Amino acid sequence: MTTKLDLYRIFAMVAEQNGFSKAGVKLHMSQSAVSQAIKQLEEELDTHLFYRTKKGAALTKEGETMYEYVQSALQLFYAGEQALHKMKQLETGELKMGVGDAIMKHLLLPFLEAFHREYPMLKFKVINGTTYELIHLLKASEIDLAICHLPIEENAIESHPLYDVQDTFVCGPKDKNEFQEPVDLERLIDYPIISFESKSHSRHYVQRFLKSKGVLLEPAFELGSYELLVEFAKLNLGIASVVREFAHQAIQDQDVFEIPLNTPIPKRSVGICYLKSVPLSMASLTFVEFLQKHKTIERTS
Q1: Model-level pTM?
Q2: What positions does the domain HTH lysR-type occupy (predicted)?
Q3: Which band of pLDDT confidence, cut at 50, 70 and 90, is reported for residue 9?
Q4: How far apart are CA 179 and CA 210, in angstroms?
């Protein structure tokens, strides 16, 4: 079946080749098939587009006008096809991603660096935010992917875990001798608690777990940065609720000290999230597959 676009492509080729037989050779069509296509187009437009010459065919005035528009339209189609090919080959494109500062710094940067080396032509737009903020942006289609704390209890969201992380508590040098042996959770509230802000996923996760054990978390300090949690603990302002992987360097350097617990907080995951109902672009799909394949790339600390 010959489509309208096919008819215009044949029309343009006849105009450029100044004849039906030459156009047929270029299009791998018989001269009669080319003639039939032009006849169909002329009937649909109710206009003569060509007149016969000794050398073949030439455009009528109406045909010249139509050719200007058809040529421009076909060039746009070809440009679109080329752009789509480049996107499929990841020679161009943009990936809009949401991620928290701490996850980016301590977990994602090695992935991003390796992916950029492999696909240097892709552009990245990275938006920072809490897990809840990123899920809101994802549902509003303002980002393609979110790298955040799991679990996400949203039916519209597809999520895949990448890393297991461990919530824990740390103290400063002043209190380290108080926690040489594992302690019960109830003992934590004897000290000022330094915690993430109330709207954070991490705060809710730890708070729910402690509440399930009969311990009510009432922070003395509520902060908006993982880095500040560690800094406040270093200053002996209290004990801080942190993710071990994000505080690893400070613990290793003995700037802060992890508090051993008789009942450890269950591990959770950092993972990648996207909308179930929206097909991923080639760039996004490739990045998701890259992350899942390269989970073992050494993370920064």
Answers
A1: 0.69
A2: 1-60
A3: very high
A4: 19
What single-letter amino acid sits at 226? Y
Strand partners, 167: 243
Of 114, 116, 71, the residue nearest 90 (C-alpha):
116
Enumerate residues 6+ apart whose C-beta is below 8 A from 152: 131, 135, 159, 273
Tokens representing 26? 């270029």
Q: Which residues contact 206 (CB under 8 A, 6 or more apart)?
A: 167, 195, 217, 241, 265
CA-based nearest residue to 146, from 196, 104, 115, 202 = 104
d(CA 161, CA 101): 18
The rounded distance, in Å, linking the Cα atoms of 55 and 74 is: 26
The yes-or-no verdict on residue 301 having pLDDT over 50 is no
Domains recognised in the chain with CATH numbers = 4-88 (1.10.10.10), 94-163+269-293 (3.40.190.10), 167-266 (3.40.190.10)
Phi, then psi, of 295 in degrees rounded to 5? -60, -25
C-alpha gyration radius of the chain: 32
Output phi, psi for 127, to 5 deg.
-110, 130
Is the peptide bond prior to 151 cis by the omega test (within 30 degrees of 0)? yes
What is the C-alpha to C-alpha distance for residues 215 and 140, in angstroms, rounded to an integer?
A: 36
> Alpha-carbon distance 133 to 98, whole Å?
9
Q: Where are the alpha helices (DSSP H) in 123-255?
A: 131-139, 201-212, 226-234, 248-252
Tokens (6 digits) for 223:
């902060």
Residue 298 — very low, low, confident or very high, per pLDDT cuts 50/70/90?
very low
CB 16 within 8 A of CB 71: no
Give the span between the Cα atoms of 43 and 134, in whole angstroms: 56
In this structure, are residues 167 and 265 in contact, taking their beta carbons and an 8 Å threshold? yes
